[in-house]
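Action item from last week, closing it out:
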Amino acid sequence: MKLVWIALFLIVIAGCAANQKSDATQDNFIKNNWAETMELTSNAFKEGESIPKKYTCQGENINPDLKWSDVQKETKSFALIIDDPDAPIGLWTHWLVKDIPADAREIRENNIPGTQVANSADSEDYEGPCPPSGMHRYFFKLYALDIDTFKARNKMEFYEQVQNHKISEAILIGKYSRS
């Protein structure tokens, strides 16, 4: 009986240790479980690397280029969300773009590919990374949708309608810390 309790104790300890993952491991878990079919990349930065200052509040504050591939045939449009889960007040949304045409495979630098919706700063424009302190992660999330357009007027409606109409999604994570 003692051996059973010891074995059970060791299993619990091993499980707890396995749950203590680093941010990088958690980011990979999120990425691998979100990106069903598409791949999202940028020439400006690689997965998990720093976003260049040019694309932040300390630079030109313009959007970086984004490219995607492996799109499902049923896609009727795309939507893009860029947000920061590390913001002190909770999730901070930097850019929301809907109605990106189904035949698009890239967003060029400093370009608006569709219709913008107000972000957390109540602005429809791209708002580059600008963390108040420390290193923050920025999630660039692209969604393939089963509708041509949707009528989201605010951030909450945007997130809800994307969840209701997504076919697949891809994510690219960049990091930034103000100097």
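Closing note: The domain at 23-176 is CATH 3.90.280.10 (Phosphatidylethanolamine-binding Protein).
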